[in-house]
Design brief:
By secondary structure, the chain is an alpha+beta fold. The protein has eight helices and 14 strands. Helix 2 packs antiparallel against helix 3.
């Protein structure tokens, strides 16, 4: 059987960050979870596949081993010195729905090296883990909100235990944030934005300007999460220059501060030039050789 590419399974590249890997897994886990696809064997296998891929790529040590040896490292007798997903000595096995598990003499459960799949059920569907100990575990509800709803705050109506309730989400929350609501923990899944890239409480955007504007200087209207801001582009601005807009980022959940907004300047190089534009550039190049502008 051909080896499986864990990166392809999750739809990410080798350079993906821990956050990218987590977001990709959460999306696929929601899509293929057996409790959303009852009786669908394809979804069941896909769910176990993406879970195994996430278990490896989310663990720095396992990820390093996988990058070096591939999937073979996690098979019995593989280069890593044994199957890290195998049960221990004296364990007893069982089956719960599509998941197999082993239990050791100390009462701990090992789901084949996966995270407890019932935790996934709790997080996404608010169900209970049949192996949880007493009342230590709180029910969890997953709620998807837009990027700007996370930035600005929003009120959402949710159905908890058959009762429709309103949850107030404060401004500044991020993907994976957890909100305690009564006896329930609400875990937020924040959608990405086509323009704004968030880094903590800071926002990064890219703005493209022409070569003449970068050379001569200009002003530029920039969209921020707090509205439009006019910035000055100094003469001679270079590609990848970062312009900092202090306090124009995301409101901090605790306290009254705000993050910053960073504008990364991109210089647009025209692909199609008229004859006159080519002549001007040649003149420019000739003048440049006579001076030390650069």
């Amino acid at each position: 059987m051909a080896s499986k590419d864990y990166y392809s399974i999750l739809g990410v590249t080798k350079s993906a960050s821990d956050t990218d890997i987590k977001k990709a897994y959460r999306k696929l886990a929601l899509q293929y979870h057996p409790d959303r696809n009852k009786g669908d064997k394809v979804s069941e296998e896909k769910f176990k596949e993406v879970t195994k891929a996430y278990e490896v790529l989310s663990d720095p040590q396992k990820k390093q081993t996988y990058d070096q040896f591939g999937e073979a490292a996690f098979e019995q007798g593989g280069p890593s010195g044994g199957n890290p997903f195998a049960g221990g000595f004296g364990s007893q096995g069982g089956q719960y729905g599509p998941f197999s598990y082993t239990s050791s003499s100390n009462g701990n459960f090992d789901f084949g090296g996966f995270s407890d799949p019932f935790e996934i059920f709790e997080q996404f569907f608010g169900g209970a883990n049949p192996f949880s100990q007493g009342s230590q575990r709180r029910p969890t509800y997953s709620l998807t909100i837009s990027f700007m709803e996370a930035v600005k705050g929003v009120e959402k109506k949710v159905n908890l235990g058959g009762i429709v309730q309103t949850i107030k989400i404060p401004a500044g929350v991020d993907d994976g944030s957890r909100i305690r609501f009564g006896q329930t923990d609400v875990v937020l899944d924040v959608e990405s934005h086509r323009k704004f890239k968030r880094q903590g409480y800071d926002i990064v955007t890219e703005e493209e300007i022409s070569f003449p504007r970068a050379s001569l200087g200009d002003t530029l209207d920039v969209d921020t999460v707090q509205g439009k801001v006019k910035i000055k582009i100094p003469a001679g601005t270079q590609p990848e220059t970062l312009v900092r807009l202090r306090g124009k980022g995301v409101k901090m959940v605790r306290g009254s501060g705000f993050g910053d907004h960073y504008v990364k300047i991109k210089i647009a190089i025209p692909k199609n030039l008229t004859s006159r534009q080519k002549e001007l550039l040649k003149e420019f190049e000739g003048e440049k050789k006579k001076s030390s502008w650069f």
